[in-house]
Specification:
Length: 401
């Protein structure tokens, strides 16, 4: 039975492949930033309508939730794809290069969206044998706080009940097209943003004794925050605090400014420590500045939580991937300190977030996500739509009588 289903899905994916490639290239050429995905949402709606799939619009702005209701009673499962692009100027020389200056699908959301559309078409073909309900989430705003996932949840995504599982896939250029990767348990870190203003007393650089130098104090703050991570955190619970931006109001080679601003990110794999660390960070900044005669204002913007892959669901999906692709094509993933708003779903429903290989065998062609040279081996789209469909149908298919 599984062998027949695999053959049917692979055949369907092969037939859909040219159309899905065309959709992916169209989305890539017309990227839209977070919460501005109007054209993308329209393309998704057109494709769903073409295949007779019901959907609702307006989720978190331009989000869409499509529904395939099987002809038989059963559980509800969800599949998710994000739709937004990044504020990056594309450097690729391809026919489908972004036409919007400074906006690019550098994180593969065009791949996620087109793959889920292909999976939707395959699943619709099998509607007669589906036992249960499939909800497909085309989500806006993954790249920008507060994250489209958190908004869709607040708007009632789970009001009819928590699904049996929710599945997401994400491009991964480190694996070749046709390969996928899974990881059980804690997979991706939480992410909070830190904004600090250090105020001193400016003046001439040649007379620092008449000033209160906020630049020196800001340097002490950076060092003190690094000590907080290295000395007060459990070494078996990874965390990263990085100050990525420092700038002053005014200043020159011979001027000490009044004010210095610092901006950074806090990543953690332990939700309890994450929450405790916020007050500790504020205390360290305040005391460090006070000792130097400066004052400080600290704003910690709460971001995405840790992403946790449910062990049972992940193992089931991993085995189905082995069945569909072969054991040598399924890999174990390392944990990552990057973050994803899919984590909001994983905090509520049993979830699996896996990686879709998009790379070429020629290593020099592969660039990381968020690079202005990022691109994919489009053969990955066959795996992207096919595996989503196979996992879903393996969970929901059954005898029709």
């Amino acid at each position: 039975m599984a062998t027949d289903l695999i053959a049917q899905i692979k055949s369907a994916a092969e037939k859909l492949f040219p159309e899905i490639v065309s959709i992916r290239q169209d989305l890539h050429q017309h990227p839209e930033l977070s919460f501005h995905e109007e054209r993308t949402s329209g393309k998704v709606a057109d494709y769903l309508t073409k295949h007779g799939i019901e959907f609702t619009t307006g989720w978190a702005g331009f989000g869409i939730v499509a529904v395939i209701q099987g002809n038989h009673q059963g559980p509800t499962v969800m599949l998710r794809a994000d739709m937004d692009a990044l504020p990056i100027r594309e450097a690729n020389d391809v026919s489908y290069k972004s036409i919007h200056e400074g906006v690019m699908h550098a994180c593969g959301h065009d791949v996620h969206t087109s793959s889920l559309l292909g999976a939707a078409a395959i699943l619709q073909q099998h509607k007669q044998s589906i036992r249960g309900t499939i909800k497909m989430i085309f989500q806006p705003g993954e790249e920008k706080l507060p994250g489209g996932a958190s908004i869709m949840i607040k708007e009632g995504l789970f009001k009819e009940g928590v699904p049996t599982w929710i599945l997401g896939q994400h491009v991964y250029p480190s694996l070749e097209a046709g390969q996928v990767g899974f990881r059980n348990g804690m997979y991706m870190a939480s992410a909070d943003e830190i904004y600090i203003t250090v105020r001193g007393k400016g003046g001439h650089a040649a007379t620092p004794h008449l000033c209160i130098d906020p630049i020196v104090t800001a340097a002490k703050v950076v060092t003190a925050l690094q000590e907080e991570i290295s000395r007060n955190k459990d070494p078996f619970a990874p965390a990263v605090l990085t100050i990525g931006k420092i700038y002053s109001d005014g200043g020159a080679t011979n001027v000490i400014p009044d004010t210095v601003h610092l901006e950074g990110t806090l990543r953690a794999m332990d939700e309890d420590w994450r929450k405790e660390s916020h007050q500790r960070i504020k205390n360290i900044i305040e005391k460090t500045c006070d000792a130097s005669g400066c004052t400080a204002e600290t704003n910690i913007v709460i971001g995405y939580p840790c992403l946790i892959n449910n062990d049972e669901v992940t193992e089931k999906c991993r085995q189905l991937a082995v069945d569909f692709l072969g054991e040598d094509q399924v890999y174990e993933l390392p944990a990552r300190m990057t973050s994803e708003d899919f984590a909001f779903y994983s905090q509520i429903a049993p979830a699996t977030f896996y990686r879709l290989g998009t790379g070429w065998s020629e290593v020099n062609r592969n660039f990381p996500v968020h690079s202005n040279h990022f691109n994919i081996n489009e053969v990955a789209l066959k795996t992207g739509m096919g595996l989503l469909a196979y996992i879903t149908l393996s969970e929901l298919s059954g005898p029709t009588s």
